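[stage:ingest] chain + small molecule (magnesium ion)
[stage:ingest] validated
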Amino acid sequence: MEADRPLKVGIIGLPQVGKTSLFRLLTGNGATAKGRAGIGVAPIPDDRIDLLSKMYRPKKTTYATLTCIDTEAFSPGEGVPRFLNGIQDADALIQVVGGVVSDDPAGQLMAVQDELALVDWGLLETRLERLQKEQRRVSTNGQELSLLERTRDAMEGGRHLRTMEFTDEDRRLLQGYSFYTMKPLIIVVNVDDGALQGQYPGEEEITRWAHEQGVTVVPVAAQIEWEVAQLPPEEQGAFMKDLGLSELGIVRLARAVYTQLGLISFFTVGEDEVRAWTIKQGTTARQAAGKIHSDIERGFIRAEVVSYHDLVKLGSAAKVKEAGLFRLEGKDYVMADGDVVSFRFNV
Ligand SMILES: Nc1nc2c(ncn2[C@@H]2O[C@H](COP(=O)(O)OP(=O)(O)OP(=O)(O)O)[C@@H](O)[C@H]2O)c(=O)[nH]1
Ligand SMILES: [Mg+2]
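[stage:predict] done
[stage:export] tokens:
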């Protein structure tokens, strides 16, 4: 993930499975970015931000966001896969399979995933041919060539790239190709209300495949959740309880995206703004400061850190200080999920 580029997820799937319904649910319909249809910004629900916002009563509350791309449906046997337009550089893919309109969501999953593997394989072949030609003239790129050959051989055995072991160096080499089967994937099973607590057809097969691939399955009732979202906030809780929903699917979906991508959040608070920031696990305090502004990274002195849980438990930053739970951290401190941070810096 680059410094200030918002995370981008592509929503893919067969026709009429609920891609647009999910997109609408995530982005709240009207929130299209850059005026282009099919691109929208989804605020990531986070009850920690809600609580911090109640504590600080800021002028502005800013959630972390995902940029979502609603794609055209994939039609098998189409030739050029149009459904991949605009998602080549996506950080993750969400494939929607329809538990409502289809009695074969597992088949839907594999139809699309097989196509993605085919597209990757084509990319790989083209690049390999070119490298092999170059190889005959100049003796460079040996490392890349052997990596691509190894990758192709594994793909011929039916493997998707995400299940392959790569060194960091290999990953760096492969990154430029944006292989689709290397992207983190979340499978959204669009279930209707009847299936909310129960099972859906093909559940066992989907779960098994997801486990092999190391990807997450999230059941979401797109239609019902959209109806819940239309209610005034104070009525949503009771309605969800009636449906036996403890947590909205979009909340679980957002969490799945974070987990799959190895992301965590830190927070900044104050009377002007309470805000969530998204960083990779393992990010240092100084790098985290750079998310906010490059000046803060450059002139970094220290980070004043309070954990979200201490802050909420004790009720105020002053009480956290009294309890000795307020920390001063240096530039190499590794940020934890839920850190509430204030950066001190020189300009
Ligand atoms: N009953 C029910 N209907 C749903 C649900 N989700 C979607 N639908 C309906 O199914 C139809 C297709 O939904 P869309 O969200 O447009 O599906 P899509 O995948 O974007 O469809 P295409 O873009 O045409 O491929 C619409 O009529 C939706 O109202 C659901 O959870 N329950
Ligand atoms: Mg659609």
